[in-house]
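hey so u asked for the seq, here:
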Amino acid sequence: MTRHYWMGGKRTYEQDRFFESSLDKARWQAGDDPQEWDACWYTGMPDPEYFAKVGPDRKINHIPGNNALTVKSRLYQSLVTLRERVAVQQRGASHLTDRLQFVPRVFSMPEDYHEFQQEAFDNPSSRWLLKPKNAARGKGIQLVQDPANIPLDSSWMVQEYIDNPHTMHGRKYVLRLYVAITSVTPLRVYLYRQGFAKLASEPYDEENADNPYSYLTNPDINALNLDAEVPVEFVDLARYRAWLREEGHDDDVLFAQIEDLVALTCLSAVEAMRERSRAIGADTRGCYELLGIDCLVDDQLKPWICECNLSPSLEVCAGPESGGEIEEDIKGSLVADLVSLVGLNGKTEPDRADTPEQQLIAETGEELSRAGNFKRLLPSDTPARYLPFYTLPRLEDWVLAKAIAGEPLTQPTLRRRYAEDMISDDCVYVYDTRLGHLSALNETGSLIWLMATDGAAPDDIADALNDSIDPGAAGQPDIWAIRRDVWNSLADWAANQLLVQKDHSGASISAVPRAVEARVPGKTVQFSRILECGAFRVELCTDSEPLIDRMEPLLTPMASKMLEGAESRLELVRDTPGYTLILDGKVVQSRLALSRVVPAVMVCLTRRAADNGEIVLDAGLIASPDDPDNAVLVANSDRELGDLPALEMASRLDAGFSRAISIPVDGGGLCSVLGLPAQVPELKADATGKPYASPIHHLADGSGMMLQAASSGLAGETRRIQTVLIPSHVSLREKTGIRKLSVSEAMRHLIPGCCGADGQPLGSAGFSRLADWLAGIDRYLVDANHLETAVANLPLEQETQGVSHSA
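ran it, structure tokens below
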């Protein structure tokens, strides 16, 4: 009988051609109905309805719940959850938890944002990769330049960067491994013996963080490197292993670790796949999965898992001269062997055996005989190595383990984890101490629970249940069904963390390793400062150590000498996501990344610095702490320059710098100095003479600024403004480097930085007062490209001559 296959999803010729060519043409015919097929080859993840009719004779190339592996953040969580459970089983760290130390740490946004900021603060030499959680082919991956500026959006995660990779001919590489999961009950996992080392297109340089062709190995990224002689190069695993041996390494040891890594990774997600399949009603006998696992090898030849890819690319990426022909052969053979392995081209079941146990063992053996170049990892040839990593083996897993082991195996037993129980009216009530749920078990469930928590093994419980059946009842009891019910009940309770396997290894117990410890979302360090900014006196509070480190030096000039009497309270709260600014109980701003908090605080202070009738003007101030009558105001409205001209002029004149003033109501006399930090555009930051490693802060529009604290002795003081300068990044025609400005021209540059009380724009009265104030002051346009000439031709040196200034 001719059967029909259907191909769907994000279809491309490259993804489909190997599957189509591997099918037996005498058995298969292409179908055109997405509802009527016997085999479905779907690129991407199909909707749940595609799984409604799958079964032993109707197969699809995906398993529900596979996102526990294929979504990067969930992969990490699956492995961490497994590691934590094994540590609980072992009552601490052991050789079992050591085997799970192969996944770099991951911080998922936004819930892990503050934990990551604390980690980055505590370990400034560590490096991090920013990755989309659910993208492929290297899209969006970048080295984190500034941890304070990572996105808060839930589509992102940060992964620890392994900065000591093993290199091949000086270039970083990642191993692409192909893994097939053909069954989840029992769990059967295969690793393809061939695969690739994917090489970066340029030599690895840990200092060159701006060069993706050095630290990324994704072929789609490196294909864009037009300067590389061979932008995309694949080395098949056979040649890779031969090269390792030539270099004096033991490739068998490395690949034994890789096989262990793959088996444990798949084990970490098996309960998620079983539960999702059960939720949507999928018969997993009709489901299988091909994964592309990327594995980094470090310079100690330790493998690290990077990611698991859904529907791995079957496109031939490399050119013929750089491994393309071998790549095509391997990918074609991979799909052909996969089609054979899952039985699409022939008989999928052996002849019926006498018992379910014998049938299961025969089916597993039959599948292995079709494996081609796939190597079976689970069930393992040494089952005892993996049984402790199951939440609890299902009966099918246990039967295969016993059949393969060739020696007696001790049945697992369990103990309480997050559970308390009580007996009332012949019923057991189980209380989940983690979630606060109370459940009543039926008679059979009560017996299973009581015997299990008393130390009985699953088959002993099944025997007791079988013995309790009335001999006079009609029909013979189905002992296989009873055993399955017992094993499944116990496994479900263990998956819900009510029970946990006991440790039967007798291994020594050590302290729990750092990666297994419960995460702490950032240290709590109480910080409080009373600040004075013009007419605004406020107590600023936070408990975020990374924020305090960035902010405290910038606030020091505004810190009040009086430790009491603040009229307002500004709280900088760690929130999800980011930070929230709360002023006197009202939210001012929220969802702020760490890099945006300090500028937001400065805006909050500035908008409240003016008393009634006063005008706040955001501009640089050059002045001496000792001379209240000769100050210069320098506009910062040119976004390409910011406060850089004012800082350079202050340095040339040996004067101090501050930012923002408050002009009094009468429009004359002395202006109050607010003491805000200078803002220098990120691209100009190195011109300040400060280390370029200084933190970069981000304004509301996303522009990056380096902030430099105001000079001491100016904030809170008053100064008389004698001159207003407007720097220009466009060179002037005047050889003097300066040009006199009218009041209206000066207003055009200064108005954007002005506000009145409560941050409101200037009204007509305020506008007129500002114009009158400027009319009494010298006003100049200054060539920022020739500041030395401009300063020499301004009447500033005469004003400052003979005056001792300190910054």
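Confidence is low (pLDDT under 50) at residues 507-521, 797-807. The longest strand covers residues 171-184.
lmk if thats what u needed
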